TrEMBL record:
The keyword Glycoprotein does not apply. Keywords: Glycosyltransferase, Transferase. It comes from Bacillus taeanensis. InterPro entries: Ppnp, RmlC-like_jellyroll, RmlC_Cupin_sf. It catalyses: uridine + phosphate = alpha-D-ribose 1-phosphate + uracil; xanthosine + phosphate = alpha-D-ribose 1-phosphate + xanthine; guanosine + phosphate = alpha-D-ribose 1-phosphate + guanine; thymidine + phosphate = 2-deoxy-alpha-D-ribose 1-phosphate + thymine. Belongs to the nucleoside phosphorylase PpnP family. One of its GO terms (molecular function) is purine-nucleoside phosphorylase activity. It is an enzyme of class 2 (transferase). This is Pyrimidine/purine nucleoside phosphorylase.
Amino acid sequence: MEQLKNVTLIKKANHYFDGKVTSRTVILEDGSRKTLGIMMPGEYEFSTDLKEEMEFLAGHLEYKLPGEDWKIIDGSGVFYVPANEKFQLKVHTVADYCCSYLND
């Protein structure tokens, strides 16, 4: 999906890792939530509460899910993170992302 329609945008940005990762929260018409953001080059570890779909629209990075080996995204790609887990990223170029919070 290239375009989000009929949404509510939270203007205040979310800042992580001294501002190297930023995002804005979008609430869809059905009440589901996404964040749209940018990651600067660096190494990061995130924790989840809900299952997450991490969609990268641009960038070169590596990601590591619990119990798995490092995988590469070069350009665009998607991966899923289970609820209540941690995942690691090595971002090599500025990365444009959309995180969807899933309730299943």
